[in-house]
Each structure stands twice: as C-alpha cells, then as structure tokens.
Amino acid sequence: MNSNIYGTGVALITPFNLDFSVDFIALEKLIDYVIKGGVDFIVILGTTAESPSLTLIEKQDIINLTIKVTKNRIPIVVGIGGSNTLNVENEFKTLDLNGIEAILSVTPYYNKPSQLGLYKHFKRLSEVSLLPIILYNVPSRTGVNLDASTCLKLAKDFSNIIAVKEASGNISQISEIIQNMPSSFSVLSGDDELTLNLILEGANGVISVIGQSHPKEFSTMVTFALNNQKLKAMQIHENLEKFYHILYSEGNPSGIKAVLSHLGLCNDILRLPLTSISNKLNNSLKSILK
Q: Which of 6, 33, 165, 257 is catalytic?
C-alpha cells in the first residue's frame, strides 16, 4: 500500500476559545502557518490535540475544517485510538474520513494488554480500516510498550499497517525495527530531540510538536537529514536544542500552546484536567523566542 506519509509531520493542537469551545478560526490560521512553513503532512486529533477531551461531533467538525482548509496541499492523518477495541473500531466506521490519508492509532492505554493483546487489537483494526494505519507507541503515556517483535509482526502480516510513530525513547528497540522492517514500512520519530539521529539511522520522518511552532526550521532540518546532509541538519538541531529541553518540562500540549500563544496563533487555553504552564516556564519560553 503506497503512502505519502514521510518527512515532517506536525501533531496539531486543538485551539480553544475562552468558553472552551473549539476555536476553528485559530485552527485555520495554524494549518496555513505550518503548510506555508514547509511541512509534509499534518496530524489532527492526536495526543497534542487533547483528543480524549473532544466529543465525536467536535472530532468530525475538526476533520471537516482541516480538509476544507488544507485543500489537498498536503496529506492529513487523523488520530483514532483508545483502550476499548470495539469503540475504536466504531470510530473507524462512524467518522467520515473521506479526504484523509491515514489513521494514527495509539496503543490501548491504562488496561496494559499483553503483546498478544496488542497484536490482536491492531489486527482487528486492520481488518476493518479502509485507510492505512500508523501504529503509535508512547509507553510513557499509555503504560504499555509495543515491542519491536510485535511491531514487526504487524508490519509483515498486514499491508495496510504502513508505519509506526515511535515515542518509546528506546533507541535499541527503534533500531531493531528500522533494521528488520519490510521495505513498504516506515518508522516516524515521535520525539523531536531524537529525530535527527533516528533519520540518519534509517527512519523516514517525524510526527513533531516543535515543528508546529517552528515549521520552516524543523522541516528544513528533516529534509537535510533525509538527504544525508548531516552538518547542515546538525546546525539547525543545535539551534533548536534549547527548546527541546524545556518545551515538555510541564507536559504536552501545555508548553507548545504557550509558545503558539506568544506567536499569536491561538489562546493559551486547555481543557481540564490539563492546565497552562507555570509563569516561570512561560517566561523562559518567551525569552528563548525573543
């Protein structure tokens, strides 16, 4: 199954108004900002989008707005995942995904399934999905790790499972996947700071957070890395490094929403239980931006 998912993807936030309703005007502005910044694809309704706090109606409205604003300029990936396989399957079938390139589906969280349970979960989703699926492994959030062996088995057994967003931070595990994956499969970094090294090792791109505030710089770095222009890529990586270390220190998307607010792209508003970052961190991010 061919896919256009490679290079720099950005995991978009969901902007909110003062009354906590979805700010579609800000979302439209943000989509245009990252596309003009040179990113290769966008991801909506992922972790950074605060998807667990969104209703199914809001999700469909966000999908519709994104398709309308993007105007086929770059591919769109939609996050659909959860800890109840049947509910996830129902969202696959219920949401109107016409115009979407692929689905990003996180490993089931909280209930900590075995590797067999993870395999059967994604096997079932593969069998009902009309779109390619990108696995999303982020054990720091879900409480379960998708082992390299399970990831590779899924990649080899199901042609519509086309990639994994790897945010485990386990370099040896990610390297094992890169070295043994089918030629039709891709590894996408799920960690901004590790992106350069992973691409130089054989990863195909990234689903980034910082690429949302710095789309031109980050996408240029990724392009240099994919073309094996290590020194040019490293220069940009080092310039962004000060952001890597503090942007996530009080959680995501709290940090990136503060940065985007300083850039005039959205309000610094999150839905509970998430809250804005501290004044101390906010001032540090503001200082770095200047």
A: 165
- Among 237, 277, 287, 239, residue whose Cα is nearest residue 255: 277
pLDDT tens-digit readout, 83-93: 999 999 999 99
Domain ranges of the chain: 7-228
Q: pTM value?
A: 0.95
Question: Residue ranges of the chain with pLDDT lower than 70?
Answer: 1-2
Catalytic residue among 6, 119, 136, 248: 136
Q: Kindly indicate whether the domain formed by 7-228 is annotated with CATH number 3.30.465.10.
A: no
For residues 89 and 83, give the distance between their C-alpha atoms in angstroms, rounded to a whole number: 11
Decide if 280 is catalytic. no
Catalytic, 165? Answer yes
